[in-house]
Amino acid sequence: MSNKDVRFKIAPRIADELEDGQVVNLGIGIPSLVNAFIEGKEVYLQSENGLLGIGPPPSQDEFDIDLINAGKEPVTLANGAALFSSADSFAMIRGGHVDVAVLGILQVDTRGRIANWAVPYQPILGVGGAMDLVAGAKKVIGAATLFAKDGSSKIVKELTYPISGIRFIDLLITEFAVFSFNKEEMVVNEILVDMSIEELSDKIGIPLKWRELVG
Question: What 3 state SS string does the chain have?
Answer without folding.
Answer: CCHHHHHHHHHHHHHHHCCCCCEEEECCCHHHHHHHHCCCCCCEEEECCCEEEECCCCCHHHCCCCCECCCCCECCEEEEEEECCHHHHHHHHHCCCCCEEEEECCEEECCCCEECCCCCCCCCCCCCCHHHHHHHCCEEEEECCCECCCCCECEECCCCCCCCCCCCCCEEECCCEEEEEECCEEEEEEECCCCCHHHHHHHHCCCCCEHHHHC
